[in-house]
Every structure is written in C-alpha cells, then in structure tokens.
Amino acid sequence: MKIDLSIVIPLLNEADSLTELSTWIKKVVQKTKLSYEIIFIDDGSDDMSWDVICKLQLQNENIKGISFRRNYGKSAALNIGFESAKGNVVITMDADLQDSPDEIPELYKMIVDEGYDIVSGWKKHRKDPLSKTIPTKLYNAVTRRVSGIKLNDMNCGLKAYKNEVVKNIEVYGEMHRYIPLIAKWAGFQNITEKVVKHQSRKFGVTKFGLERFVFGFLDLFSITFIGKFGKRPMHLFGTLGLIVSLLGFSFLIYIGIDKILLNKGSKLIANRTEFYVALSSIIIGVQFFLAGFLGEMLSRNSTSRNNYQIKEKLNLDD
Ligand code: UDP
Ligand code: MG
To answer: Is the model's pTM score more than 0.90?
Structure first.
C-alpha cells in the first residue's frame, strides 16, 4: 500500500537523539495530515540505539526499523531504506538532530506541487567546525564542475525524492555523497536545492573524519567514469591509447628519418632522449588499449549491460 511520505533515517550509535528526533518528526508531520512512515536503519550500532527504536515503535506504529548485523556504512543503510520505502515522497535525514524536521512539509510540497525529482538541502549556515566547512566548500566546487549539477551542498543528509527516483538508483560503497549525480545518470534531471536549517551536534560524535575528502574525490572519479564510459570503456581507453601511441610512433619515425637520411653519422639511436620517449609512449599506449579491451569484456559479460531506465511505455504489455 502506498502512503504519502517515508522518512528514511540511517544511524550509527545515536541512541541519545532518537527519542527527541522521532517526537519532533511526529509533531511536524501530524500537522500536515499526511500518511507517513519513519524508517530507522540501525547501521550496526553498539550502543542502545536499536533498543530505543524498538521502544519508540511501541508508542508509534508508523515507526519501522531495520538493524544491520554489522556496520556497512551510510550508503548501504540508505539503499536498504530506499528499497523498503512506500511513500510517494521519500525524505532522508541524519539521526543526530543536525537536520531539522521542520523542513519536512516544505520539502514535501516542492516535490509534489513543483514537480521536482530531487530537492537537496543546503546547509547555508553550517554549524560544524571550520576543519569541516572549508574543505567541504572546495569539495562542492569541484563536484559542481565535474558533475555539471549546480548544487551548493551535494552531500547534505536532508533530501527529498520522488518515489521513482529512489527505486531506480543504487547507492553503495560511500556513494551517498553523490546521490544527485547518480540520479542524474539515471535520467532524473529535475534537481534543485532548498536552504535548510542546521544545528550543531548535541549528542555523540561525527562518524566521518578527514579521510572523507580523499575517498570523496576518488568516488567522484569512479562515478563520472562509470556514468560516462561504463558501457563503452574502449572509447575512453582506446582514445587515450591512440593519442599516446601516435605520439610514440611519430617520435620513432622522426628518429628513423633523421638517422637514415639526414644525419647518418649521428649518435646511436639508443642514446637519444627521443628514443626513450617513443618507447615508453608505445608501451603505455598498448596498455591503455589492453585496459580498454578488458573493460569491454567485463561490460559485455555484465548482467546489467542491457538495463535501461524506462520512463513510460505506450501500448506495450509489460
Ligand atoms: N551514519 C551511518 N553509518 C555510518 C556512519 C554514519 O548510518 O557508518 C549516520 C550517522 O549516524 C548520522 C548520519 O549517518 O545519522 C550522518 O553522520 P554524521 O552526523 O557523523 O556526519 P556529519 O554530520 O558529521 O557529516
Ligand atoms: Mg551530523
């Protein structure tokens, strides 16, 4: 059965904030008269989080929960929450009370009335230490350039989605930082942002250290590569291979002509810099081609090679 709104909340060791969070959400959503569910995903907490969730469920039947046997990461938690969500609109938020439930009605309205696929929160006045906010600015600037999505705060935990978006994307590894980009590759282009309130952390500690920036950038490369060339790796590696080997061959021809026709008595070919440039370029070029062929074989054997996002069908049986 479909309902109006699912609120998906991944959490790791957030026992202290869960009661306040769920009471607050209930208060806000009840005013809107929407049917709703709150799905808590306990990502392998070793504090009392799961007990708190079970207790809250006894007081509010709209609360649902999934508990991982161990910690898999925020992406995994979101993914399984997306699979279970029944709401027409799905809203994700962090469990640490840094995101405000007061934003829920407006986010819901933007999806339903204004027809956006995704509305992403923008923590414009961010209540986090400088060590986090400054690198985040840089990270967002690079992501904007590489992805072409004009969001100021790609990785905000507070986001709203149309149901069909969350059912058609897969988040894994640490890819939760790039959900708008994943959705864009899946064909959902109508993405916008809304300035949201942000609180400093009241309880517990942040679960992500500075390594987030290194991993984040690596993930951005992977996601862009898979999105653009995942189904045709040879186009990338073959082009690189062609450029590099052509460079190598032109150097070879140059030294050849120079040795045989122009400066017959010149020094040994093996003593010339150009020779080494030519040699290494050809070797690297061949390696690019090999990577391309291997990539093609992998993608041809993949079971998802003919998976496409279908928006609608006309006059065709399923
Ligand atoms: N979280 C999670 N699994 C993890 C790490 C974090 O479910 O492995 C949850 C965490 O409990 C919180 C949300 O993801 O609800 C955001 O984490 P955090 O507040 O530590 O991130 P920050 O606000 O510092 O960016
Ligand atoms: Mg937080």
So the answer is: no
Domain coordinates in residue numbering, the chain: 3-229, 233-300
Say how far apart CA 83 and CA 118 lie, in whole Å.
Answer: 17
Q: Whose CA is nearest to atom 7 of ligand 1?
A: 11
Q: What is the pLDDT of residues 101-120, one digit of tens each?
A: 999 999 999 999 999 999 99
Please work out whether the CB of residue 81 comes within 6 Å of at least one atom of ligand 1. no
CATH classification number, 3-229, choose in 3.40.50.300, 3.90.550.10, 3.40.50.2300, 3.40.50.920: 3.90.550.10
| Among 207, 208, 211, 212, residue to substitute to test ligand 1 (most atoms within 8 Å of Cβ) | 207
- Cβ-in-10-Å burial (0-12, 13-18, 19+) of 267 comes to exposed
Q: In terms of Cα–Cα distance, which of 138, 231, 153 is closest to 185?
A: 231
